[in-house]
Amino acid sequence: MKSEEENELIRRCREGNLKAFGELVNEYKSRVYAVAFRIVGNPADADDLSQEAFIRAYRSLVKFRGESSFYTWIYKIVTNLCLNHRKKNMKIIKSSFDERFVDPDSRKAGSNPLPGEGKETRAEIFKALGSLKDSFRMALDLVVFQGLSHREAAELAGCSEGTISWRIFKARQQLREQLAAYI
Amino acid sequence: MNCSGREKQISDYINGALDEAESRELEEHIDSCPQCREILEEMKKTDRLIRDHLEESPPPKYWSDYWPRLKGKILEEEGKERRNFLSPPGSIFTHWRWQTVLAVAAVLLLFLGGGGLLWRMAFLQSQLQTKLRRTNELVMRLKRRGISDSGYGPTGNFIPAGNIRKDISLFQGLQGSFANNMEWVVIDGDRVDLSLSQEQDTQSGLAPAPLIYLNIKVFQKESGREETMVSSPRAVIRNGRELNAKFETPWECGLVYRVRSRPRLLEGADLISLEIELEFSRAFPGSIQESRAFQLSTIAVIKAGEAVTLGSVLLGDEHYRVEIMATLEGSLPVPLREKEGYVKI
């Protein structure tokens, strides 16, 4: 979406035009949902939190000063919501995650599934990502999964390009170690 | 560059952050270096593994329902908010309610307006009297601390605009300096509600404290070029309050900085003094630690929004240069100091 078009939509939203906000939501919903999912790791929470992020954005549109793009803004909102959610629910997430991602059949049989297969891998990946520092994870998410450049990611994270580059490198190093069995 | 420094470069290469010449040079190296080739492959596989397992694509039905559900929630919330005050707009009922409210308000204004205004003025006056009493108490406390009473003292007058007259001087005992025209006397640790003040009416009642951002920049010298690796670990400093901060670089060598600083606003605009103690320790593989401390004492002129380099130190092997910069947010010191809300006596 072009920035002029986006600004026009935001202006109409501020006037209380809900339809304009709907257009913004439709433009960004999949990206916002994907960010939430990569942090919280389950569809139900990703859905709740991404919707909550949009609601908060709508409520505080007056505070949006247009210094950054709408996506930058909503990205920060959803990331903060998800990180807070994760902190609050760390124990619950861990146990429910184990339940959901460990294949019940393999547990019944009392055997370990082969690395690289199915839900167990997903659980391990999530665990490895969860062990990264938030700033490292954010840099990785922005560049590797969202395809932003170092410059764009630095702008979003509020740090230098060198720092982004370093964080991704350290994140990759840590993930390679932790996921060695699956590579 | 040998292979030990290549790993980060390979990561940048995958991110598409190298320029053409750097990419070509790395590709040539990778062709002839099995170790780096393996690192590249492993990094790519890790990325792919995560992407394949953490990409979630809900069904199309989910996406088509997304906005209607969200819209429902927004409307429901708005409805609740309105019901708390009046019923939702647009209905005849609401129209009728508004008319009723306006009619009642008009009647009240007509019969009680004069009385209400008087009541409001009395209320304001009692608040001002409370404030004045508190001012006097604070001034008595100042006197008890042995600070001369020449140059300060509330007049006890208050004016219809709702402000206590601003002729109270405030002492900063440690420096012997004082500022005139303060709105309110504040003793260290005390919080004073400034919400009635016309000039400093903020939501919290306390205007924000002046902030100085102390930035530590670390430059890594490698292959003859300097690279900013860490920038702006920001620390908020209040005037005269000691800052103890610890910053850790994300480098393998694990440099840790402890910074102690006591910034002080000096008389005259945009001037601060800073005493900085910088201590760093560095962990080498095998748990060997090296620690050194540096001290900087400096006075700097800082203008709002500008960063000023206060000093720099070279670490032992001269691979790293640490630069300390201060950035000022807002303007200093007189306008903000008046708003400070924390003044050391």
Description of the structure:
The complex is a heterodimer of chains A (183) and B (345). Chain A has helices at 3-14, 18-40, 43-59, 70-88, 90-101, 104-109, 118-130, 134-145, 150-157, 161-178. Chain A has 2 domains: 1-88, Rna Polymerase Sigma Factor, Chain: A, CATH 1.10.1740; 131-183, Arc Repressor Mutant, subunit A (Orthogonal Bundle), CATH 1.10.10.10. With 183 residues, chain A is mainly alpha-helical. In chain A, α5 (90-101) runs antiparallel to α7. Chain A is built from 10 helices and no strands. Chain B folds into 3 domains: 3-54, Orthogonal Bundle (Arc Repressor Mutant, subunit A), CATH 1.10.10; 123-208, no CATH class; 211-329, no CATH class. Chain B is built from 6 helices and 12 strands. Chain B has helices at 6-14, 20-32, 34-54, 60-85, 92-144, 334-339; strands at residues 168-172, 177-182, 211-222, 225-230, 236-237, 243-248, 255-261, 264-265, 271-284, 288-301, 307-314, 320-329. The interface between A and B is large, with 48 and 40 residues.
